[in-house]
Design brief:
Layout (H helix, E strand, L loop, with lengths): L1 H15 L20 H4 L15 H11 L64 H4 L2 H4 L8 H9 L4 H9 L6 H13 L7 H6 L7 H11 L7 H4 L12 E2 L12 H5 L8 E2 L21 H10 L23 H12 L4 H4 L7
Antiparallel strand pairs: 1-2
Helix pairs in contact: 3-7, 3-8, 10-14, 13-14
């Protein structure tokens, strides 16, 4: 990224010496996503909008915006405040606290591999229908950055650097909300995690312990963990189906989830299945951060399921309260799940400020 910034500065100097309209035949530099082998072998290509292609300049601008407190009303928080690289782009609190000290009701979702979210529904409740639209809401949400887009655009427009950076990324120095969120989305699409121990195992570059292999077997067996329907398998290395499920957290709902978005009572209590990647870094868990540890999550599916009218049919052992794993099976399952964590992702210098 440092090399990219050096190149961008050179181009910016050239632009300043070109035509008055800043064009001079210049085009942003294409930056196709670097598709990991484990993905190219198993899943279809990522979703890239035709009106927001990946470019070096757009990604660099999006990264700068992602880390900049200028997006918040009082200049104290940024996107990274709730989406830290060291936590796989979440913040390790049950519900994030905005600039006014008010905690929300939802856990901050980690951000990685979102370019492969084929249903194009984002957030726990599917309320944002693209990554670009998802980037809009936190800026104006009163329990998050609590700003408004008119003020944000005005601050960006009067900034000494941003007009030139938007010129590089989008061939215009006139800043808009739409271009700002496009840049953020471009950066977020580069946040790819695909180098876990299990990824290396799948590519023949690592071995799993007997306990980890036992855990994989429990994960895949319908008469044991029965986890794969919602969270994928070795042939779906996203480790999520990106769909919405009522996974038996509550008998009644204070948060309707997808149901509040669609207005369909049959969707009440349904939330997006998150990826199981990087569980070592993303505690606490569930849409409201109710489970502090991975052990609590496993206990929930083993013996803590709550029945309700919209319980997912995949929760087949609801009458018994769960899949009833032994302590050893729980330990084995946990060992496998931790092989899905990717230390190179949280330490990638391209994703640091």
């Amino acid at each position: 990224m440092k090399k990219n910034w050096a190149w961008i500065l050179i181009v910016l100097l050239c632009l300043n010496c070109s035509n008055d309209d800043g064009s001079g035949g210049y085009e942003p530099t294409p930056m196709p996503l670097d598709i990991p082998e484990i993905f190219s072998n198993n899943i279809i290509p990522p979703v890239i909008p035709t009106d927001n292609p990946q470019t070096i300049e757009g990604v660099a601008l999006g990264k700068k915006l992602f880390f900049d407190n200028i997006l918040s009303a009082d200049g104290t928080k940024s996107c990274v405040s709730c989406h830290s690289p060291q936590s796989a782009f979440t913040d390790n609190s049950p519900t994030s606290i905005g600039i006014d000290g008010i905690a929300g009701t939802r856990n901050s979702m980690p951000i990685f591999n979102l370019a492969w979210n084929y249903n194009e529904r984002f957030n726990w409740d599917g309320s944002a229908l693209s990554m670009e639209r998802q980037a809009e809401e936190p800026v104006q949400n009163p329990i998050e950055l609590h700003s408004n887009w008119d003020n944000v655009v005005e601050r960006l427009q009067s900034h000494p650097e941003y007009p030139g950076l938007f010129e590089l990324a989008f061939k215009t120095s006139t800043i808009t909300k739409e271009l700002t969120t496009k840049a953020i989305a471009q950066f977020e699409r580069t946040l790819i995690s695909a180098n876990s121990k299990f990824d290396q195992y799948s590519l023949g570059q690592a071995t799993l312990t007997e306990q980890e292999l036992n855990g994989l077997d429990i994960f895949l067996r319908e008469d044991k963990g029965d986890c794969f329907h919602c969270h994928g398998n070795p042939n779906n290395p996203l480790w999520t189906n990106n769909d919405f499920h009522n996974n038996g957290l509550d008998a009644t709902f204070t948060d309707l989830g997808l149901g509040a978005v669609t207005g369909d009572p049959n969707d009440n209590g349904k939330f997006r299945s998150p990826s199981l990647r990087n569980l070592a870094y993303t505690a606490p868990y569930m849409h409201d951060g109710r489970f502090a540890t991975l052990d609590e999550v496993i206990d929930h599916y083993s013996e803590g399921l709550q029945n309700s009218p919209t319980i997912d049919p995949l929760m087949k052992q609801i009458a018994q309260g769960g899949v009833q794993l032994t302590d050893q099976e729980k330990a084995d399952l946990k060992a496998f799940l931790l092989t899905l964590s990717d230390p190179s992702f949280i330490n990638n210098p391209e994703f640091q400020d």
